[in-house]
């Protein structure tokens, strides 16, 4: 992970301070009611046991069976769990099986792209029971730690049982290094969430990438006007509009990332985005890098976001909280003023963590 000298970070904060002075949180913290934490137990047969959550979870109602849910779980592979009676993860996780994997290391990989794993960051039904699956991809180094990340897209015409080989849609502006720094750092971009913005008639991918204007990996975004979000149709955010190339077909690289302001004040990744049908606005949660807490922000258009607040802070989660996911009684895409946030807590030295949730109610 690239870092800039501290004095440059301070200069950047001073320069943008005036711009962000007038920004205000859309919902005061005191108007948000948060329940006590519930920890979800996992039986020994659960694949990737004690490593949940590890990224974006999709919970969708398919048109061919609208009284049931499909849950896509994300780890080194993505697991598709069908016929779920409820959207709630605690009712489904202990029925999860390794045989449910549909993409990822256990299925097939592409060198330099998905050889380190791939998992969905948004699965959507687009037409005639066809599914589009946007995924986070990693390429690793032999006997070295770290990951080179990018984002791809794949399609299914058999209700999610099989998927086309993935195509890269978003990439960093620097190629994969020949060797890793071997210290666990990340390269490229990823750890995102993809939603359909009906007002803009476009897909928007919110992801974490290195942003030179903020000197760190921050939440930024890209857009595709293509109905299937195909490779070659994506443009990154330039601070004002979507004009920066997402991924060049010849080089495999994209343009420079620009942080979403004012989210650059809380650097982080792994966003989950849901449309609130009662407030008629978008909501986003993501985890900060340091401290490991959950940030919350809202937007009326999905482009201009409010000042983020620490929703689950260190007083609530002293052991740290990561990988937040919105889920409502309708799934992960829409909800009202009461919803759940599932997340991982107290991540240990070897990656082990607790799978938890809290119910959140917006009272304003």
What does this structure look like?
The chain is built from one helix and 23 strands. By secondary structure, it is mainly beta. It has one domain: Glycosyl hydrolase domain, family 43 (Tachylectin-2, Chain A, 5 Propeller), CATH 2.115.10.20. Strands 7, 8, 9, 10, 11, 12, 13, 14 and 15 form a nine-stranded mixed sheet that branches. Strands 1, 2, 20, 22 and 23 form a five-stranded antiparallel sheet that branches. A five-stranded mixed sheet has the order 19-18-17-16-21, with no helix packed on it. A hairpin with a 4-residue loop joins β11 and β12. The chain is globular. The N terminus is likely disordered.
Q: What is the topological layout?
A:
Blueprint: H1 6-20, E1 32-34, E2 38-40, E3 58-60, E4 69-74, E5 77-84, E6 101-104, E7 117-127, E8 130-141, E9 144-156, E10 167-170, E11 186-197, E12 202-211, E13 216-224, E14 234-237, E15 242-245, E16 268-276, E17 281-288, E18 294-299, E19 309-312, E20 321-327, E21 334-335, E22 338-345, E23 354-362
Parallel strand pairs: 9-11, 16-21
Antiparallel strand pairs: 1-23, 2-23, 3-4, 4-5, 5-6, 7-8, 8-9, 9-10, 11-12, 12-13, 13-14, 14-15, 16-17, 17-18, 18-19, 20-22, 22-23
